[in-house]
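Request: How about a record?
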Amino acid sequence: MKLNIKPDCGNAPKRALVKDLTCYFASNEIEKAIGLLDTNITWTLVGDKTISGIKPFRTVLQVMRQNKVQELTIYSIITHGKEAAVNGEMVLEDGSTLGFSDFYEFTSAKGTRVKAIVSYLVSKNHA
């Protein structure tokens, strides 16, 4: 997988964690991603569904890994207190491109475990 990440996207511990987590999701490194999540994780896929708990989260990631990411671009990562946001785009194996924004809530201000994620995905391919 090709990575395009601005150099300043990993200058602080929480920014580095969000960058790593985004890369783990994109490269299907599910167990590495799971290691950064609270066991009671909530993942809201806006306009689709909400997943609650680590086991359902793992199952959804396993289904999503069928269309592999060929290229990941991270445009920015913003952190403040117990929250963080990342935006970028992914080019998938089937040639489609998805723009994304993920909003993270950590279990504490230290930011070592994620307890909630809200994801917005938009197809950038037009017919």
The CA atoms of residues 79 and 85 lie 6 Å apart.
